[in-house]
User: What shape does this take?
Amino acid sequence: MMAKLYLNVDSVITLRSTRKTSYPDPVAVAILAELAGADGIVIHLPSDRHHIQDRDARILRYVVQTTLTLKMGCTPETAGVALHIKPDLVTLAPEKREEFTTEGGLDLIVHKSTVSDAIRPLQDGGIFVSILIDPDPGQLKVAHQLNADMVDIHTGTYCEATTSIRRTQAFSKIVDTVKLAHKLKMGVNVGHGLCYNTIKAFKGLPEIDAFCIGHSIISRAVLVGMEKAVKEMSALIKELT
Assistant: This one.
């Protein structure tokens, strides 16, 4: 089965927030992306709401016809919002104030109890739960112990590597973590920093369920339009099988 493409619309919301206007509208972008073939939409709901509002999430829940993923921190307040909005999937992720992109995965060894407390009410509410982790088998094993439905593997170190040796080492860790997750019967999404070039390295990894990509697609859409940008990435993912 071909991996899916989930479009993260956070870059659109960041652009809107720089001028404090009502546009560009992430809802309109989500609609265009789905029409172009995107399999899901991802939004990040930070605790301080520094660039997305609850209204965005509520409207997207009504509008998105594919899979809606809400990425959020492990707080009772954001869990309450998720239980009200009912996304298809919640991805638990670390938070730093005024951070516009997630710079790494949750440290489950340090925050195991907090993450465990966050997972239970979401799953009891009928929401699938994923955990954003760095590509580390040790972190993955803890996620499995916590009964997470799946993991999102952070690909930033690979995408941002400045030498071929570091890139190869980082990618090897991703592969090992992906394969272990599949062996443990956990769903696997990957993302952060992936673009039209770095995506090509993932050929021959059928264990990946979805690629979560935002900034590179939104940036390309500025030049070629949303429909073409999404279709080009979808075509690259299709070639990975």
